[in-house]
């Protein structure tokens, strides 16, 4: 896949290597080359706004003074609360009223549980993937550190069969309910079988399964993962494991970005990085004297990355 042709570019890597900075630079470069670009942060500890020196919020907004560039930092709490409300609305239609207080309690517990923010941010990423191409030409993802990114990328394909299973259970429950309510409502033959057309919950489950499996496909076909690393042994080791996991998962890997190279010149670990990633290609970026924040410094980085004129 040609680098500039990937609809989605995901910057991944260990904490502190420069994912946010480079996602911001990458997006800015794409926008300057004429593409309508949205950059999204999927790290709950958002810092994308800091890189642009512009506050960003829960919905996409233009980034000051840069044409064709939008940024968004989805709010995991607000997303979880919206999701809880939707599930409760569906449950109200599908379940007997007396079980609703228990369902409500369960959901509020689950909403506060581990993994919820991650899953909410994955949902928001899927929403945005569906809008590219369309509302935007390119999507750039500033991701959370390695482990979170790998789970986020695996989530759509892991959840698809699970949601499929829920849909099957719901189909059986609705059919059984109809049979139990007698021949008058069940009618003859297959009329007792549940279809998504007449059960909103089932409709929602089918829709969710479809969206998850499409996202799993898009992440493998239209996305390029750019791993960022710094010349340090531990970072190299983590990056190698991540690269292997991603390759095995069927994701496309672009050249790695070796960032924050100190001015001292070649070192053992630099040589090791160049050797290990010779097949992928390595783009090298020096440690800048000033922190690369704000449009001007990010634009210089974008040129070094090869994504702007
Ligand atoms: N090439 C570079 N030169 C100098 N400082 C850099 C460079 N890349 C990143 N930084 C700085 O390193 C710190 C971590 O970068 P950041 O983009 O937040 O990393 P991550 O998102 O991977 O945690 C920030 O202070 C950032 O400004
Ligand atoms: Mg970051």
TrEMBL record:
<feature type="region of interest" description="Disordered">
    <location>
        <begin position="173"/>
        <end position="196"/>
    </location>
</feature>
<dbReference type="InterPro" id="IPR016300">
    <property type="entry name" value="ATPase_ArsA/GET3"/>
</dbReference>
<dbReference type="Pfam" id="PF02374">
    <property type="entry name" value="ArsA_ATPase"/>
</dbReference>
<dbReference type="InterPro" id="IPR025723">
    <property type="entry name" value="ArsA/GET3_ATPase-like"/>
</dbReference>
<feature type="domain" description="ArsA/GET3 Anion-transporting ATPase-like">
    <location>
        <begin position="9"/>
        <end position="305"/>
    </location>
</feature>
<dbReference type="InterPro" id="IPR027417">
    <property type="entry name" value="P-loop_NTPase"/>
</dbReference>
<protein>
    <submittedName>
        <fullName>TRC40/GET3/ArsA family transport-energizing ATPase</fullName>
    </submittedName>
</protein>
<feature type="compositionally biased region" description="Low complexity">
    <location>
        <begin position="181"/>
        <end position="196"/>
    </location>
</feature>
<comment type="similarity">
    <text>Belongs to the arsA ATPase family.</text>
</comment>
């Amino acid at each position: 896949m040609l680098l500039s042709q990937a609809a989605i570019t995901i910057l991944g890597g260990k904490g502190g290597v420069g994912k946010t900075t480079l996602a911001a630079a990458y997006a800015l470069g794409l926008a300057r080359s004429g593409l309508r670009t949205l950059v999204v942060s999927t790290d709950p500890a958002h810092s994308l706004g800091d890189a642009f020196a512009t506050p960003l919020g829960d919905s996409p907004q233009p980034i000051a003074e840069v044409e064709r560039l939008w940024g968004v930092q989805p709010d995991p709490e607000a997303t979880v609360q919206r999701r809880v409300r939707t599930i409760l609305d569906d449950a109200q239609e599908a379940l007997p009223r007396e079980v609703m207080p228990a369902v409500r309690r369960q959901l509020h517990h689950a909403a506060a549980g581990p993994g919820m923010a991650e899953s909410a941010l994955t949902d928001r990423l899927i929403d945005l993937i569906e809008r590219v191409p369309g509302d935007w030409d390119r999507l750039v993802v500033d991701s959370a550190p390695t482990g979170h990114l790998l789970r986020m990328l695996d989530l759509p394909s892991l959840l698809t069969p699970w949601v499929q299973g829920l849909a099957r259970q719901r189909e059986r429950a609705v059919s059984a309910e109809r049979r139990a309510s007698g021949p008058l409502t069940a009618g003859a033959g297959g009329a007792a079988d549940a279809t998504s057309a007449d059960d909103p919950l089932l409709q929602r489950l089918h829709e969710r399964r479809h969206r998850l499996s499409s996202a799993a496909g898009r992440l493998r076909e239209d996305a390029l993962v750019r791993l960022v690393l710094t010349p340090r042994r531990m970072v190299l080791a983590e990056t190698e494991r991540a690269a292997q996991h991603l390759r095995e998962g069927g994701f496309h890997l672009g050249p790695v970005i070796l960032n924050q190279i100190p001015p001292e010149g070649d070192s053992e670990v630099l040589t090791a990085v160049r050797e290990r990633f010779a097949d992928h290609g390595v783009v090298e970026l020096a440690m800048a004297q000033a922190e690369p924040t704000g449009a001007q410094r990010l634009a210089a980085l974008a040129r070094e990355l090869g994504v702007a004129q």
